[in-house]
Amino acid sequence: MSTALPGRAAIGGYLYVVEYSSSLIKVGRTVDPRTRLSVHRQLGEAFSVTIARTWLSPVHESFTKTEKVLIGLAAAQCSASPLAEYFHGVDFDLLVEQANAIPFDVLDLDAHIAAVKTARMPVLPPPPIPLIDIEDLAERIGREPAEIKAMVRARSIPFCRLGKHIRFSHVQVAEIERLHPRPAAA
Question: Percent of the chain, pLDDT > 70?
Fold first, then answer.
């Protein structure tokens, strides 16, 4: 992470994306990137993880509105998260590429989004990510669905929550297969 982060913005604010060494992604907004990212670094250290990479938007006035767009982009890669602005299974590079396409200089972001929708073009299309359910995961890794549910309750495996439903992305499935290999046949 660069040490030359800007301090408090005189007008407006910034969006940021933080990738921790655990692959957890945090997105948010701030008026003081130097202080905010320092807090995230300290929080990571409390859980023995470091900040691997960061991205910071240009300073802009509509940062409270553009934050919602950024959260939507992250959620599109993993439709739910353990906490509101934290995401597992999100591709940092893709998210930053999409974030850079947010129109930071547009003062009326709602009007811009409405104009884009009127033109029948998606604002920023989310990449298609196939998700599987608990039963499919259990079959794939040779476990009982009840075991998978227990792992989800214990939060010992990554997952996405879609309302009341639990789903797993291909990135999460690969991590689960690494953490919990298929048991040997008896």
Answer: 81
Mean pLDDT, the chain, as a whole number?
82
Range of the domain at 46: 14-118
How far is it, in rounded angstroms, from Cα 136 to Cα 61? 45
Tell me which of 67, 83, 118 is where a domain ends.
118
Q: Which of 94, 118, 142 is the last residue of a domain?
A: 118
Shared domain check, 96 and 36: yes
Statement: residue 36 has pLDDT above 80:
yes
- Name residues whose C-beta falls within 8 Å of residue 167's C-beta, 6 or more positions apart in sequence: 79, 131, 132, 133, 159, 160, 161
Confidence (pLDDT) at 56 = 94
Residue 102 has a pLDDT of 84
